[in-house]
Amino acid sequence: MHGPLTINDRRYGWPQSPLVVVCLDGSSYTYIRAAIDAGVAPYLQSLVAAGSCRLADAAMPSFTNPNNLSIVTGVPPARHGICGNFFLDRESGRAVMMNDPSFLRVETIPGAFSRAGAKVVVITAKDKLRLLLGAGLAGECASAEQDGVPVYSARLSEHVLERGAATLRSAAPDLLYLSTSDFVQHAHPPGSADANRYYAVVDRCLADIDHTAATLVVTADHGMSAKTDRDGRPRIVFLQTLLDEWLGAGAATVILPITDPYVAHHGSLGSFATIYLADSVGLDVVANRLGGLPGIELAIDRDSACRRFELPPDRTGDVVVCADGNTVVGTRPEDHDLSALHGPLRSHGGLAEREVPMLTNRPELFPADDRRLRNFDAFWLGLSEA
Known about the structure:
54% of the residues are buried. The mean pLDDT is 94. By secondary structure, the chain is an alpha/beta fold. The protein is built from 14 helices and 20 strands. It has two domains: 5-223 and 354-382, Alkaline Phosphatase, subunit A (3-Layer(aba) Sandwich); 236-347, Domain 2, Phosphonoacetate Hydrolase (Gyrase A, domain 2, 2-Layer Sandwich), CATH 3.30.1360.
């Protein structure tokens, strides 16, 4: 008889039936609502009608890797250490990519359960997450990209969900974590024909999972916003260009944690950046000046940002910048190639993309009070002992 596990100071009951946690990458509630209103998402509509949907907060920055790792560890980036795709190594002056498990500072919930004897399967869309999500895992961790599914397609996510439903029927895992891609959300707004077509497939796959009698918890890593003006032109604040003009070349280094190999999604443009200063004496001046720019919602010092957003101080720059819901931040114009985008720029990373849905086919799992949930409460909800 297996008992509960304490993982990263949170208590999780042993699964009495299969638990499936799904991270729908880039899925703000507006996508789900639009699909319901279009009549293409009857299963999701049934969850909303039954009171099985709440709004939750994602971890900051509202990017894929920090939030997927928060979901599978149950704690914010300050604990698990993954606060983006890159941080600056101050000693070497190099940008370091955090896609290796060695950068992870705590154990994962799937990993801990698998080592305790549970049958655990993790399936992710993008291969960039496979090593991190598979850290310490005794079970299977696979990616749709590894399976040869085209990266820039809705099929990448659909493959994850379809394979997950098939895995439930064939392998009967105790825990199953499914993480999709945000290709559709980067390319198509809520309510568009392509978005609704995709969410119709999502709806069918989630209904298939529900039919297995598994406990299902669905959330997202972040939302998505149009980052353009009325004419469809990108709204970008080029931080490195400005800082070089203000302080001189070499006085500041801008790190964009969204940067990854999938440039056709966002051109390495998101709404969150960290700035490393060679001379921290000008920190407040830089933060105040940046905070006054059009399109910038917030510019604060590292200590304030780490307290407010639960970030690891040693992997966070001296100044943290959040653009508003209509704007992204970049380095220099020549560093960003937008020619491969699949439509007008849509991206994420800031406070505007922090709100995400939390849905379950077991509404009794939600706390009785109206506390604001975090997306990394997903496993805690699904493995509640109450």
